[in-house]
Design brief:
143 residues, alpha/beta, five-stranded parallel beta sheet
Amino acid sequence: MIKLIVGSRGSGKTKRLISAVSAAAEVSKGNVVCIEKGDSLRFDLKYNIRLIDINEYGVTGPDAYYGFIAGLLAGNYDITDVFGDATFKILCGKDDKDARGLADFVEKLGLLAKRAGVNVCLTVSCGPDDLPERIQGLIAAGN
């Protein structure tokens, strides 16, 4: 299953993500992974959550990000939840936003998540109406 936490910059997406990651870690019988751009969350998450700074791996663009997540899942069958912050920054660069490319990525990642039996949650910096209709059903409650 895949969910999107959507909102403009400064709307509290990352705080919602931290809450969701923490909640998943409390009930997970496996591993919880949180991917971010930078290391700003290291003091906000508990030690048992695998925090990954995507910058350390040179991952940019949708194909590289998909491959990175697929590699994580292939290498560790105990992952139950994957969270990702700053999705547009990873997919498109610092200030670019490609909603159609995001939709393609999310649909492809959703198929992978379903096959692997993993929950995926990503933050996306835009308004819900800015997303293509085909992925609006993936917006997490509370947006």
